[in-house]
Design a protein that fits this description.
The chain is an alpha/beta fold and 171 residues long. Helix content is 47%, strand content 15%. The chain contains seven helices and seven strands; from the N terminus they run E-H-H-E-E-E-E-H-H-E-H-E-H-H. It is elongated and about 75 Å long.
Length: 171
């Protein structure tokens, strides 16, 4: 199971922030690999792709012009983030127009949160869902590794082995 940006919107903890899609709706099917919070302009060097970046915004966006905001969005997209969440409660109350335009162009979901919630709680809730879903994904590829020796060893005569191998490799 994977989590998408759509799924994050319905996460019980995240939903308490009264989230709205502010930009990049076309990218809401992006897969979220991890929720992460960081207010750095040069955040790309800390990312490996698939992150939902959660920011408060005023420390970062309050001091950036349109060109810097566009570059910030570009670095997030180029780093492969799943989306950006901005708290729109104090300080920054609206997503800058330059960010909306660029995020729409590049398909980067920008989520506005309208109720304050500790970021650690948001990250914990989302990341816990991701970790809980992970073992199910890991079990599936391991199934052939466990069944192959049994299926090959089961035939009582050597001539019975090829059909079992053929079924395993689907050839």
């Amino acid at each position: 199971m994977t989590l998408t940006m759509h799924d994050v919107m319905t996460d019980p903890m995240f939903a308490r922030t009264d989230p709205t899609i502010e930009a990049g709706e076309a990218g809401m099917d992006r897969t979220v690999r991890w929720a992460y919070t960081n207010e750095r302009y040069d955040i790309a060097s800390f990312l490996s792709g698939g992150e939902l970046v959660i920011i408060e915004g005023s420390a970062l966006l309050g001091h950036m012009g349109d060109d810097e905001i566009i570059r910030y969005v570009d670095t997030l997209v180029d780093a492969g983030v799943a989306g950006l969440s901005i708290e729109l409660v104090e300080g920054v109350r609206t997503v800058p127009k330059a960010m909306i335009a660029r995020a729409d162009e590049r398909g980067l979901p920008v989520i506005g949160t309208h109720r304050r919630m500790p970021f650690v709680d948001l990250c914990q809730s989302i990341n816990t869902s991701l970790v809980k879903a992970q073992p199910l994904v890991q079990v599936t590829p391991d199934t052939p590794a466990h069944t192959t020796p049994t299926r090959v060893a089961t035939p009582t005569h050597a001539p019975d082995a090829p059909p079992h191998l053929k079924a395993i490799f689907r050839r």
